[in-house]
Amino acid sequence: MPISARRMSLAAFSALAATTLFTAPAGATVFNQGIFVRDAHLAHDGAVTLSGSYHCEQASPMGAMQIKATVAQEGGGRLSIGAEQIVCDGQERRWVANAPGAFANVHPGHAVVTAELQEVRLSGLMPRSVTTVAQDSKDVEVREH
């Protein structure tokens, strides 16, 4: 049974509309979530502090939100640390992540800091999945203070 040109064009248009509707841009986040990297500091004892800002909506009832921050340096290493407890109320808030000097392999100079706002979906008390809902990377100068 041949398909009419009208029916074929309607099917093609529907497929295109669905693709446009359900395909998010590369930088899109869920529920207007966002995170931004500000800076990195190194204490005299080697402790590392990364900071920035974020905004998020309430996590799903089956999950929680967290921030993971990573600093990477050429010739140094890579250090990932979590930020303190975050509040998801849609307001712009500051985040801070600290790592003691004993665990950090960071030195003054150029680094790339990446911050991820993540939704952790739980199954009982155990994490079932972790989804990054917003991410930012920035070239920074790690400064001693």
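[next item in queue]
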Amino acid sequence: MTFDNARTVAAGPRQSIELDSAEALRLLGSVSLGRIVFTRQALPTVRPVNHVLDGGDIVIRTHEGAALTSHARGAGGHGVVVAYEADVIDPDTHLGWSVVVTGYAYLVTDPDELARYRALLRPWTLPALDMDHAVRIRPDLVTGIRLVSPEEAGPGR
């Protein structure tokens, strides 16, 4: 298969191996970029964001006008259902992994926690100075897969 950038992909079939939740969270913590999925006007919305894993929770920074900030604030202490996805999949070999976390997102309101997250997590979008809110995702369901070659999967898989 050839793409516009003239790169040829010669990957063969891949095996999908399920990851346990501990390994999936470890992999998620090894990267800083993912995608948050939430509902906006009754439709799914996806946003690329950077994150930090803190005590098993995923924390992202956001700003006052962001839909997720408003949505989380409107849910009060109950949180709002979200999904969070991160992956590392090589575009040439199609080997790698993907992790999806489903859980409740809460607006971080404690000033000390907010200050700590501001120090830990630098937003990658501009203007970074306006990213003065944080959202914590508490995972309820953690799933993940590793994409491997049939040789790596071993016999019987």
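[queue empty]
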